[in-house]
Amino acid sequence: MRPSSIFKLPCALCMLLLLSSPLTLAQAKVESREDEAVTRVLVVFHSDAGGTWKMAQAIAKGIESVPRVQAVLRQVPGLSEVASLVPVVKVEELSEYDGIALGSPVHFAGSTPQMRSFIDSTLDLWSQRALEGLPATVFMSAGSGAGREAAVQSLWSALASHGMMIVTTGIMGNAEIDKRIPQGVNPFGTVALTGIPGASRPSPGELHVAQLQGQALARTARATQLFRTRSPVAQQTSHSSSNPAAKVSAVDQRIANLGLDLRLPAPAGSYVPFKRVGNLVFINQVASRDGKILHPGTVGAKVSEAQAREATRLAMTNVLAALQQAAEGDLSRIKQVVQLTGFFKTDARFTRHADLMNEASALAIDVFGDEVGRHTRGTVGAISLPLDSAVEIQAVFELYPDVFEDNLG
Ligand SMILES: Cc1cc2nc3c(=O)[nH]c(=O)nc-3n(C[C@H](O)[C@H](O)[C@H](O)COP(=O)(O)O)c2cc1C
């Protein structure tokens, strides 16, 4: 099998399952819009000197190269100075993901005691069959590379015991890597050789194959997520993206909890409320509701700061209403809030624009969560704004592309 064919497997699997199911492709597309969410893949690792940590980042980069798939980095319990900012994994969160990549240094042709002890802590998940059917892959960092393939396979034993679907590397990336230097790549899972003197490690070739490995895992996770049946225990404990109702309702639920009424004002001129360019969405809104501007006038004169904050919240709510239309009703399709720019009608001495704009930023994070909601930002004072609005917000968002357009189209 050619390396590129490996990537077509998940797509072929999708087609096969769709053909054998009573759903037509058109029905599946509609249901996928309603039910599907982001695929989340966990990269959990241990690293002492940083080799495995660098590999974990390359795996995560490969995972994120697949549309609508998010990588979540976690480390196993135990002190790791090289990746001190990475949160420690909780064993019960494992069943919340749609795929798992395990990374460890090679110790005596096996994994480290820290990784081993973490795997032993999954005993309850094993008896509940909570990880059954989840795609998984293994990457490592070694010194000379002695025993590296056995080391990868030692972790495979644990994955097989859990009934997980092992994603291998085969000969992917082989054609592109520099064969004049020793490389730790092998058919089982990428390994970095960090003990080779005089060379930067992991090598560019090892990092490249690690990215391809992450991509292969993400594609398998994405394809199998749609059809995987989970053990009853996993379904009960999972708050994951694989539980479509939970995931889709997460953004909707937050909008409901915040009491947001997403009603898009009719355009007040010759323009459209949003424009999509590729996966980017561009939106501009003022603080208008039911044809009226909320708290019109100049901030610091007629309009108090409290009123300006209220107006900012309404302008941002209108931005979200436009975004909901752009995303065809499914706000879980937002990959990230890219940039917000706030224009405030103020007098020349006003300097607290950033405080006012925090209202919009906080709303973006409250709705989408910290990872998706954080954005770059600009704030500007203006002498006048349309319809005497105290505020106007410009926003740029990135959407995940449609999974069927991407994989089957
Ligand atoms: C106790 C111990 C055993 C090791 N055994 C091996 C081994 O069998 N083969 C190998 O290639 N490297 C071995 N190494 C080297 C580590 O795998 C190497 O330093 C690796 O890069 C560490 O990963 P890290 O940079 O993520 O901490 C061993 C190191 C230690 C401390």
Note down, in words, how this protein is organized.
By secondary structure, this protein is of the alpha/beta class. Helix content is 39%, strand content 19%. It has helices at residues 3-20, 25-35, 51-64, 113-120, 123-127, 148-161, 204-225, 232-237, 244-257, 305-326, 353-373, 403-407, and strands at residues 39-45, 69-75, 99-105, 135-142, 165-166, 191-193, 274-277, 280-286, 288-289, 292-293, 334-345, 376-382, 391-399. The strands form 3 sheets. Strands 1, 2, 3, 4, 5 and 6 form a 6-stranded parallel β-sheet that branches. A 5-stranded mixed β-sheet has the order 7-8-13-11-12. Strands 9-10 form a two-stranded antiparallel ribbon. Residues 1-36, 231-249 and 403-409 have low confidence and may be disordered. The protein binds flavin mononucleotide.
Q: Concise description?
A:
This protein has 409 residues and is α/β, with parallel strands linked by helices. Helices cover 39% and strands 19% of the residues. The protein has two domains: 3-242, Rossmann fold (3-Layer(aba) Sandwich), CATH 3.40.50; 250-407, 60s Ribosomal Protein L30, Chain: A.
Order of helices and strands: HHEHEEHHEHEEHHHEEEEHEHEEH
Give the C-alpha Rg: 25 Å
- As for the number of domains, it is 2
Mean pLDDT equals 85
CATH homology group of the largest domain: Flavodoxin domain
Query: Any idea of the CATH topology of the largest domain?
Result: Rossmann fold
**If helices are DSSP runs of H or I spanning 4 or more residues, what is the number of helices?**
12
The top level CATH class name of the largest domain: Alpha Beta
Largest sheet: 6 strands, parallel
Number of strand segments: 13
Helix amount, in percent? 25-40%
Structural class: alpha/beta
